[in-house]
Amino acid sequence: MKISSTSLSLSAVAALLCISSTFVNTASALSLTIRNDVAGNSSSPILYGFMYEDINYSGDSGLYGQMLRNWNFQAGDTGGAADLSHWSLVKQNTGSATITLDTANPLNSINKNSLRLDVTTSSASSRVGFSNEGWWGLRVQPGESYTATFFAKATSGFTGPLTVSIESNSGTVLASASVSGLTGAYQKFTVTLKPSVTTTTITNKFVVSVASSGAVGKSVWFDVFSLFGKTYKDRENGIRSDIGNVLEAVQPSFFRFPGGNNLEGQSIPQRWQWNETVGPLEERKGRFGDWSYWNTNGQGLLDYVYMCEDMNMVPVLGVYAGYSLDTSSVPEANLGPYIQQVLDELEYLMGSTSTTYGSLRAKHGHPEPIDIPYIEIGNEDFFSTTYDYRYKAFYDAIKKVYPDKKFISTGPQTSRPYDLLDDHFYLTSKEMIALFNHYDNYARGGSDIFVGEFGTNSQGCCGASAANLDAALADAVFMTGLERNSDLVKMIAYAPLLNRDGQTQWNPDLVGFNTEIVWGTPSYYIQLLWSANRADTILQVDASNGGFGPLYWVVGSKESTKQIFVKMVNTGSSSQTIGINLKGASVHSQGVARVVSGGLEDTNSASSPNTVGIKESVFSLTSATGFNYTFAPYSATVLLLHRM
Ligand SMILES: *[C@@H]1O[C@H](CO)[C@@H](O)[C@H](O)[C@H]1NC(C)=O
Ligand SMILES: *[C@@H]1O[C@H](CO)[C@@H](O)[C@H](O)[C@H]1NC(C)=O
Ligand SMILES: *[C@@H]1O[C@H](CO)[C@@H](O)[C@H](O)[C@H]1NC(C)=O
Ligand SMILES: CC(=O)N[C@H]1CO[C@H](CO)[C@@H](O)[C@@H]1O
After folding, report:
1. Count of domains in the chain?
2. CB 533, CB 10: distance < 8 Å
3. Residue 303 and residue 508: Cα distance in Å, rounded?
4. Given pLDDT bands bounded at 50, 70 and 90, which one contains residue 83?
5. What is the pLDDT at residue 16?
6. Signal sequence span per UniProt (predicted)?
7. Ligand 3 atom 1: the closest Cα is on which residue?
8. Integer Cα distance of 420 and 432 in angstroms
């Protein structure tokens, strides 16, 4: 049902919700009647998803499973000149050698820098070589295998062997392998290392060394290293499996990538360019990211697509739209090449193998075309004054080739239509709770809403407050309002998604990690609770003896499983007992309660990752059509009922 509700005042909507129910439990307690006897609104099947960009070292060092740092010597990871940072010389006993950054022996036209090892003295008992310290360590876990790859060549007369190993920082070799057959031309070497350890440690390093008098006076060049442990769904060049599992648990339906700000570039030439992120690793140079550190692009366009495929997420592709963070806009007359680059990107993804870029995709290992149902033109273009002409130009060109795709506008503009408007909310808890009814009176029948980024910070936007339960409950209230309006609000995503502990640029974030572990913030558990208990129909709820605040609710049903989900947030400091009745449905005598609750300041951290979580219990109903339930202070609860 679509009604034009712009003229309805909030109190009129409240009055509609307060139509008296036939079941009144007590004179004073709030009582809700779930109306399964009248048609509900259908809820968006892809309501919950993720927004992702590399911020806070969340890509390199985090989501991207590459364990080595500065693996292709393109730039210091703070974005400075290329160097050998994070690599160190290794020498034992009388061994003597140097390592230098060499620009005269390029692997190819993209990766021109190599690490050169010059051996002065070496013997069987005096090894020389170099090590990489990883991203704040190298995690070695029981039962895990590690695959290392690299390119190497040597001066004539030296063919190897080289020893490739993972060692503890105190020098214990945990696993090693040997390669030989080096020549004067670069070759790719691959070894598998399987440490036999019984505990997880991160105080380890990756070492390549030589121990032979045959190497004396010789030089060996190395480039493009990689080291991966188990990746999520065992993807080559994939994502860290524990992070993948934590993300998967949320059951995200869509993935917005590659940014956010990180799409735009600090300046126009520094924008994210798809064609620099695909193909073999040795063809990816990297770029200086928007969050002031080097992005290796080891994780690129096709890798994000694999993540969508492996996690069953619909891709929502942000495309560069001629505006960068230094507030410069590409003039209208010069947009042509930028539009062409986006068309090439879309052809790479969606084109058949008979197209130029579709065939490149096939060459990169993905012959099947990839559907991109949602295309977002730019990012937060409400910051610019040029969006009208830019949106129009990109929209017209893309629409011509892909008429059936859905277009997302990142700000209000009137030049061309859009299917969804991307709204962002970074607010305090109070402000977020006040937005509970934000979309209640929003006009239906026009474009839909994509809440592409939101996150409550209990101290206000972007500061350094903790991602605590107070913030998470405000998220829950806001999301409850979004779900009540999910006939209009089609997709929502918390942001930012990931944060490397100790490298926080934006707080709060959904998931924290360090080299050893990964944990959800309280907001993560709210996402999980609301997303994984997903309804397809939002049911009418009649309230008597009270209204919203401190309790906020939405009730939905899922036809295929006969489930009813009562989602309830209690922002108050006291428990709340209310009556819940059902009209037009009888439910089984036992329900399941899934609850996040605690103190407002409670949070999760590296040293205490499980302070806040979801507690599940079974409860009994006094009748098939009604029961009383007590909601804990400061809690978000899903009551799962099963229709007979
Ligand atoms: C990527 O494409 C742009 C033009 O669309 C081009 O200028 C640039 O050189 C390309 N980069 C690589 C690495 O191919
Ligand atoms: C369905 O959506 C309309 C707005 O289009 C709203 O007025 C009505 O309350 C919604 N019904 C339910 C059950 O949420
Ligand atoms: C809920 O509690 C009230 C007050 O104690 C009681 O009168 C009512 O019968 C209860 N309702 C159900 C369905 O158990
Ligand atoms: C890489 C980078 O810029 N890291 C930053 C992350 O955020 C912290 C806190 O804002 C900065 O100190 C780091 O420099």
Report:
1. 1
2. no
3. 26
4. very high
5. 33
6. 1-29
7. 628
8. 21
Cα(84) to ligand 1 centroid in Å equals: 27
Q: Which residue type sits at 158?
A: F
- My answer on whether omega of the bond before 609 falls inside 30° of 0, hence cis, is no
512 Cα: distance to centroid of ligand 4 (angstroms): 15
276 ligand 1 Cβ < 6 A: yes
- Indicate the DSSP class of residue 191: E
Domain of 204 in residue numbering reads as: 87-230
Pocket test for ligand 4, best of 56, 505, 506, 514 (most atoms within 8 A of CB): 505
Residue 277: is its pLDDT beyond 50?
yes
Q: If you search the block for the tokens 């899903």, which residue do you land on?
A: 638
Ligand 2: which atom is nearest the Cα of residue 488? 5
Task: Give residue 482 CA to ligand 2 midpoint distance, Å.
Answer: 12
Query: If you take atom 10 of ligand 4, which residue's CA is the nearest one?
Result: 505
Whole-number Cα distances in Å, 202 to 85, 92, 206, 465: 19, 23, 11, 28
Which atom from ligand 1 is nearest to the alpha carbon of 340? Answer: 5
Q: Does 590 map to a domain?
A: no
Q: Euclidean distance between the first and final Cα of the chain, in Å?
A: 27
DSSP H or E segment with residue 306: helix 301-311
User: Does 39 fall in a domain?
Assistant: no
Q: How far apart are CA 605 and CA 467, in angstroms?
A: 10
Residues contacting residue 38 through CB under 8 Å, at least 6 positions apart: 540, 584
Distance (Å, whole) CA 550 – CA 540: 20
Of 4-18, 94-108, 237-251, 497-511, the range with the lowest mean pLDDT is: 4-18
Ligand nearest to the CA of 3: 2
Q: Is 129 in the pocket of ligand 2 (CB under 6 A)?
A: no
What separation in Å is there between the alpha carbon of 136 and the centre of ligand 4? 15
- The finding on whether 444 has its CB within 6 A of some atom of ligand 2 is yes
CATH code, 125:
2.60.120.260
Residue 163 and residue 369: Cα distance in Å, rounded? Answer: 41
User: Which tokens in the block code for residue 374?
Assistant: 């949602």
Q: What tokens does 602 get? A: 């409670």
Cα 244 to middle of ligand 3, angstroms: 45
Q: Kindly report, residue by residue over 117-160, the tens digit of the pLDDT.
A: 999 999 999 999 999 999 999 999 999 999 999 999 999 999 99
53 CA to centre of ligand 4 in angstroms? 15
Is 129 inside any structural domain? yes
CA of 274 to the centre of ligand 1 (A): 9
Model confidence, pTM: 0.93
- Residue nearest atom 1 of ligand 1, based on CA coordinates: 275
